[in-house]
Structures are given as structure tokens and as C-alpha cells.
Amino acid sequence: MHARCQVLGTSPGFGNSVSHSHRRTRRRWDPNVQRKRYWVPSLGRNVTLTVSARGIKTIDRLGIDEVVRRIRARGENL
């Protein structure tokens, strides 16, 4: 699954793992993304989104219609 939130645009962060001996190796921090299905009344159908945990809270706060409007305004198709 693509590690990018469709609502917030959250993507992986990159950095180093530092061992006890202080050796550094590259690593990445993936956001907590999940595939969620939402009923969108304005479209009259279900929409499946890849959203982070924070994105789910944003949908709860703003409403799915407003979030879908913002996603479509960016040019993403659902």
C-alpha cells in the first residue's frame, strides 16, 4: 500500500537508526495509513480512501463531503 494519506498528504519521514555503538543506518518512518470506505452523500456512492489515523480524525471533524471536496479540488480522482 502506498504510504501516503489522501486527506492530509502525510508521507514517510526519513532519517537514521542509531545503534548502541552509534553506527547510523538509513530508515523510514511510515505514517499509520489504512484503507477506509466512506459513504459520500453528495456523490451518492462509497469512496475508498487511504487515510492516516490523523486523517480519520479530520474526516470526523470536518465531514466526509468537505474532505472529498478538498481532495477533488486538488485534482485527485476518487
TrEMBL record:
Under Pfam families, the record lists: Ribosomal_L28 (PF00830)
Q: Which SUPFAM superfamilies match?
A: L28p-like
Keyword match Chloroplast: no
Q: Which UniProt keywords apply?
A: Ribonucleoprotein, Ribosomal protein
Which InterPro entries would you find in this protein's record? Answer: Ribosomal_bL28, Ribosomal_bL28/bL31-like_sf, Ribosomal_bL28_bact-type, Ribosomal_bL28_sf
Q: What segment(s) does the record annotate as region Disordered?
A: 1-29
Superkingdom of source: Bacteria
GO CC annotation: ribosome
Gene3D superfamilies, sorted? Ribosomal protein L28/L24
Q: Which HAMAP family match?
A: Ribosomal_bL28
Family, per entry: Belongs to the bacterial ribosomal protein bL28 family.
This chain belongs to the protein called: Large ribosomal subunit protein bL28
- Which species expresses this protein natively? Brooklawnia cerclae
